[in-house]
UniProtKB/TrEMBL annotation:
Secretion signal span: 1-26
Pfam families linked: PIG-L (PF02585)
Keywords of this entry: Signal
Organism of derivation: Tumebacillus lacus
InterPro entries in UniProt: GlcNAc_PI_deacetylase-related, LmbE-like_dom_sf
Gene3D superfamilies: LmbE-like
SUPFAM superfamilies: LmbE-like (SSF102588)
Protein name stated in the entry: PIG-L family deacetylase
Length: 451
């Protein structure tokens, strides 16, 4: 009887998917015997939520799958309390949780056809990946995880003893991509609001920019307001992108229908992560739907500047040369449209890179703005620009001829950066943010752009 119900739900879902007005679709994922699918997840259980259908279909088609698990999930204190029946978990308890979640991952992956040899545990700190991306990049400044360690402690790790820093993560992902040579890569969506997820997305894009291969890239979403809807077990419903993200420029969504059997196996795989089901069963089982959801992002290239930057960006409407689009009205710390960062435009001339930030309301000098650039293929790995009280401050010292310039007009903030400050970069990852009264109000996702 249960199988019939699942079969009926899958049929209803496929009919619903056939009519989705206004939803830009990406090409469906159709694996074959030459498919080499690399799945990158922040925690044990994320592949169960977002990728079981793609994994199973690749294996059934004779292709290969490699699963990369960034952390062992050893930073979730509530899960440790429930798993071990303790009120105040110590760092040793969090390490124990990491071992437990590793065992759960191996069992769950087995249910969808993967073996232990197909899984690479990197072992980096749960709830700390954003720290490795933002502030603990160098090997000389390792981060201390909630598990009490500053380097990968797990015996089954891909590189046991690797320091907890961004350079280590970049090294591992770049090497994995080079060794496995994927035809397709599935990784977290850059709009995911969970810090481990968006930073995993950024690290993956960074590593892809450092490699010569050009696999097809697909992203998946797990954490976003009001997603999935409803946030409970509802297998007869389809999984649709949140309204704010459904029509973002440069993003195409694809709904991959699941058969009744695939849906059942997905459910079983999710329930195998018992330490997580105890804490957030409704969220986890809400991903058991009639389909899985992926997105494909365009990779924009910065266009040559036609005219003067001030005329092109400050005096033209709509914003020209747009490379990043952020959902409107998604600011957190302030409801004012002045703090609603919506678009980034970019152009280049022989000497400078021009970047224009557009807001929902006029630029205010009382707010603080930041533009972060990561340069994966350059001798200079990062450049951070801060606009405070109408003045530019840089995180790292620049030479006299490398100083950026700032101009404001209405709801736009225009920065021009000498090309020499970017060294020999051919690709840049960038994100912008605005702070109101010291609190983060809005930020754009990390996006990769070709220079």
């Amino acid at each position: 009887m249960w199988f019939r119900r699942l079969l009926l739900s899958a049929l209803i879902g496929s009919l619903l998917l056939a009519w989705q007005p206004g939803l830009a679709k990406a090409a469906a994922f159709t694996p074959g015997p030459r498919t080499r699918l690399l799945v990158i997840v922040p925690h044990p259980d994320d592949e169960s939520l977002a990728g079981t259908g793609l994994i199973e279909r690749t294996l059934h088609a004779g292709g290969q799958v490699r699963l990369v698990v960034m952390t062992n999930g050893d930073g979730f204190r509530t899960a440790a309390k429930r798993a071990f029946g303790i009120a105040s978990p110590t760092s040793d308890d969090m390490y124990r949780l990491g071992l437990l979640r590793q065992r759960e991952e191996l069992a769950a992956a087995k249910k969808i056809g993967l073996t232990e040899r197909d899984i690479l545990f990197l072992g980096y700190p749960d709830a700390g990946l954003h720290q490795l991306w933002d502030t603990h990049w160098d090997t000389t400044r390792p981060y201390r995880g909630i598990n009490g360690h500053q380097q990968v402690p797990y015996r089954l790790a891909y590189r046991r003893g690797a320091p907890y820093c961004g350079q280590s993560v970049s090294f591992d992902l770049t090497r994995v991509i080079g060794e496995f040579r994927p035809t397709d890569v599935l990784y977290p969506d850059p709009h995911d609001v969970h810090r481990d997820h968006w930073s995993t997305s950024a690290f993956t894009q960074y590593a892809l920019a450092k490699t010569k291969s050009a696999p097809r890239e697909l992203t998946y979403l797990v954490h976003y307001p009001d997603y999935p809807s409803p946030r409970t077990y509802h297998p007869v419903k389809s999984l649709a992108p949140p309204a704010r993200l459904a029509h973002i420029d440069g993003v195409r969504w694809n709904k991959q229908p699941l058969t009744a059997l695939e849906q059942s196996q997905k459910h079983t795989s999710i329930l195998t992560h018992r330490s997580q089901v105890r804490v957030m069963r409704d969220l986890l089982t809400s991903f058991v739907r009639t389909n899985e959801l992926t997105a494909a992002y365009s990779l924009p290239q910065v266009a040559p500047l036609q005219g003067r930057g001030t005329q092109v960006f400050l005096q033209r409407s709509p914003l020209p040369h747009m490379i990043v689009c952020d959902p409107a009205h998604d600011q957190t710390a302030a409801q004012s449209s002045n703090a609603d960062l919506q678009k980034i435009g970019a152009a280049r001339d022989a000497d400078r890179l021009w970047l224009c930030l557009e807001f929902g309301g006029s630029v205010r000098l009382g707010y603080d703005y930041a533009l972060h650039l990561r340069l994966p293929d350059s001798t200079r790995s990062r450049l951070d620009l801060y606009v405070e009280s109408g003045r530019i401050r840089t995180m790292l010292p620049l030479l006299q001829g490398e100083q950026p310039d700032l101009q404001c007009f209405g709801n736009r903030l225009l920065l021009s950066i000498p090309r020499s400050a970017l060294s020999d970069a051919q690709t840049v990852l960038l994100s912008a943010e605005v702070r109101a009264h010291g609190l983060l109000a809005d930020k754009t996702p990390w996006r990769r752009v070709r220079l």
